[in-house]
Amino acid sequence: MAVLTKVAAKKTAGVLGDDLALNAQQVTGVDASRELPVVWAVAKGSLVNKVILVPVALALSVFTPAWVIITLLMIGGLYLCYEGCEKLAHKFFHSAEATAHEKELRSALVEPTVDMVELEKQKIKGAIRTDFILSAEIVVITLGTVTNSPFLTQLLVLVSISLLMTIGVYGLVAGIVKLDDLGTRLVKSAPDGTGTFKQTTGFAILSTAPYLMKFLSIAGTAAMFLVGGGILVHGVPPLHHLVEGIVHSIAEIEPAGHILAGTSEMLFNAVIGIVAGTMVLVLIAGVKRLRRTTAESEDTYH
Length: 302
Description:
There is one protein chain. The protein has 11 helices and no strands. The protein has helices at residues 2-11, 13-26, 35-63, 66-93, 95-109, 116-146, 151-177, 179-187, 197-235, 237-251, 257-301. Helix 4 packs across helix 11.
């Protein structure tokens, strides 16, 4: 069980990185005194999500053939790749729109007429919805790891991963959102303004916290392609054998063959993930455009 839990934790690392960045961003704009209660509320919602998802996953494992689990795993991998490409497309092609939305949000937060309690509830609901999707990916990936194991092992591994991911993600989110408070407290530790080690550390924390969020976002996106591409490669036997053959050939190169082989495998997974995600993104964009064109044609006709 411990070995399978470790393997499942590695495979779900991509979702973990993105989960961290997304949930830390969800708390942005909440009053400092309410950040930890909001994180705790979302963590409880995450546990409820997993209480729903784990029995469903186990039922699928018991009452459906293995190809159903493999299909769900492939869909999960495709979704990871699509989400990564969608984030990149939004960043590079809709940057002005995203900036305008961020400005609107910031201006709303300083408006005295804004109901902060309602805003907090909306943020919690949005974070729990996001967590449900990410938790489903974690559960499906974990189930794919233990699909050939006895039922008790599947149950224990799924419960272990669910608890580890929830505690790990929201424990780290709580730490990340309070970094600015820690930095401010350290800066104010010497009222006379003299430079101290605590103040220097505080200024360092305040200056690096925004970059930490950016790093988590970038690392989470990259891990989506690595994990999602890896799932797709392993799920398509011809592609898996092709990549495996290339990696084995690279591994024979001396003296750094093993290092090059590991790096090459990750690059292959990332490339497959990017290609697959781009195809799904283009397909979905095409369907949306077709529906919009059809709706406009019907409105014109009427």
